[in-house]
């Protein structure tokens, strides 16, 4: 009996492909499993992106997305093999999840199933799947399709910019300390797929509006090398106005034939949380996609009746949606997500550049709250630092920091490996933290507090020295500061007086060494 397809492409649901884009292609989706406090659900069948984000609103519960197990993949491949002479299955990067390992194990009992680790995530996998499925529909050979997949894996660009690290902390993907550093310094990491894992590819500094502008321009800075066929703007809980702004900016930079705005599924939503978005596209290639739709706006997927029931249950408890079932509420992502006012009051050194102001002025697009007059006056007084702030905005692809990390490693008493752990392993991020550390000499404040015997303010200042020193890996200095902080808490100011000079001597030596290394 002749099978329906010569070649069938299957791909995990983390590909974030709306079904409208593949309805007439030989392409099937294998659902991941989403685990919430409400139970286990099949991704995009029993729960959609909004249901995932609703569950994530409760900080007491972690939402997890996991691949099918080997025996579950085996069941899927058995079904697919009955439909096609050959099945090609695409997984995301090996180090992002267990999907590839489980699929590879399952495929051992089939002689017509080929497994690929795409090294990509989200719509990056989806883009490869669409191109491969188009070739399959055009009756191209198995060898040609496999060769195309291998080439496209190298040519696909997958990256995301993270608005808030809260969900990455809850998922144990970054430390709470790294999150706090990002909040204090207004740093936003750009996540990229590299070596089949999610890594920090760049760190941007400044207001969210400024970061959005920098990220989009950075991704699309070389139009001549980009395949203009399609751009995916894949997001988790962004507002329509935010997305329209991003789309308009992308259209100005590169003349894409199609730009699709799609909801991020389980992988991105669970890992990165609300307010994350990415630009996913391919570099120039010879593999077109057969699109049956020219335009697309995020639509509901899966079994509508099941999704409606699940979302309603979640909505009643979390009150994120109204009674509209699958209809999206305006409260889904509030304008506060584009506002930096929720950061700690201790953030006082931000410098707003001209680029910040230009983007911030577009309030209708980015819904950024206008700064108060007092903040604006303070920013203007710090305008001398604006050039440094712009330099700090540059991505990890810039030349900043070349050789600096080696100089830092040679500083006595500085454990750079410890500091790098607090900075998600990113050297440019670490160098930025060190620069922030030496921006102001703290010894003068501590000397004044000691002289006036101001115990409370000495405690506050030495506490800050303790924390910031640990952030850069100056562990011994941090421990010295901690000892004097504890003495202040215990009212033992004699111990503070006795230990102050030694602490200041070590601090000034470290400060001088750091300054020489990074300047």
Shape: elongated
Which blocks of ≥5 consecutive residues have pLDDT under 50?
299-402
SSE-based structural type: alpha/beta
The level of helicity is 40-55%
Number of strands: 13
- How are the strands of the largest sheet arranged? 10-9-8-13-11-12
Q: What is the terminal-to-terminal distance?
A: 73 Å
Largest sheet: 6 strands, mixed
Task: State mean pLDDT (0 to 100 scale).
Answer: 78
Strand content: 5-15%
Oligomer: single chain
Continuous helix count = 22
Q: What would you report as the Rg, rounded to the nearest angstrom?
A: 26 Å
Summarize this structure briefly:
By secondary structure, this protein is α/β, with parallel strands linked by helices. The chain is built from 22 helices and 13 strands. The longest helix has 26 residues, at 493-518.
What does this structure look like?
The protein is α/β, with parallel strands linked by helices. The chain is 47% helix and 15% strand. The strands form 3 sheets. Strands 10-9-8-13-11-12 form a 6-stranded mixed sheet, sandwiched between helices. β6, α3 and β7 form a beta-alpha-beta unit. The N and C termini lie far apart (73 Å). The model is unreliable at 299-402 (pLDDT under 50).
